[in-house]
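Reviewers of the previous submission asked for a worked example of the structure-prediction workflow described in the proposal, so we include one complete record here. The input consisted solely of the amino acid sequence. No template or homolog information was supplied to the procedure at any stage.
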Amino acid sequence: MLSASALIVLPASGADTGCRVDYSVNKWSGGYTAQIKVTNLGPAVDSWRLTWTYAGDQQVTSAWNSAVTQTGRSVVAASLGWNGALSTGGSAEFGLQGTWRSADPDPSDFALNGMSCGGDATTPPTTPPPTTPPPGADCGSAALCSDFEDQTGTAPSGDWRFTAPDCQGTGTAAVDTAVAHSGSRSLRVDGRAGYCNHAFVAATADLSAVGPVMYVRMWVRHTTELPAAHVTFVSFPDSSQSGRSLRVGGQNGALQWNRESDDATLPAQSPAGVALSRPLPTDRWQCLRFAIDTTAPGLDTWLDDEQVPGLHADGVPTQDVDQQWLVRTTPPRPTALRFGWESYGTGDDTLWFDDVAVGSGPIGC
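From that input alone, the workflow returned the following structure tokens.
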């Protein structure tokens, strides 16, 4: 379990300062994840190389959205082909996961392409300044952006339609005007236990061209803790699985990814793997975000802007996390999005979905 979190801000001061770094870290006994945002304060560049020094015995084990190497305490994160260009004032975000044994102090000596980022870490603010757009209609150029305010009846219509993949039972879905994250409408699903109680609402938008990384943002609220049995509440029909689904749900009381074609899960359903996931809190709105790489086996998940270590895959095997997931090397190619409830044993639930967005760039909460 995570035991501490902090935002470390490297100040943009001094004549030689070429960048700003926001280093947001989540720590637990023996491990950590970090989300890093680097902002270029110098001339525009076509590629970037961020370096820093660890003061403790931290060891990077995996990374996403950058190529990270480590020699002793020195770490280098290099841009990838698609995120290398940084204009003056432009920024890039990436993340990493690592381990530590005796100490995990804050890193120092950040530099972008050899130019200092301006000193050591400062005391983080009590409440970090917002860096993401608000929910609702502010989805930028997203391929799908819906707050359900255009729904006029109780049955989903227009850009949304009810569907029951495989078989239909007593589960239902409707437009709700009593509970909403923003505005006055949301999508409500009354899910029922049992395999033949599929109840989903599907977006009519074709998402097959979104990428190369598909970013998904939604707000979800549910009433019952995730059961020990396997359930699904988000489903992406996947052309790489011949139309079978890439699924988000729960098992053993925690969030998980599931691949319909071979029933592989992320994380692995071992006690250690499940401990690296998170339960889905009940009776309040949660921001759930995904990044699905359609060119390589890359996958990331954030719950309320906290990256979930057990729901991260980058192609490098991690014990108790992705060894089962990486058996399949074909990248996913989601073509559509469905919300609902599908139980493979026990587990009724009532869920609401709101402020949904899908696009080719990161979408904030």
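The radius of gyration is 21 Å. We consider this example representative of the routine output the project will generate in years two and three.
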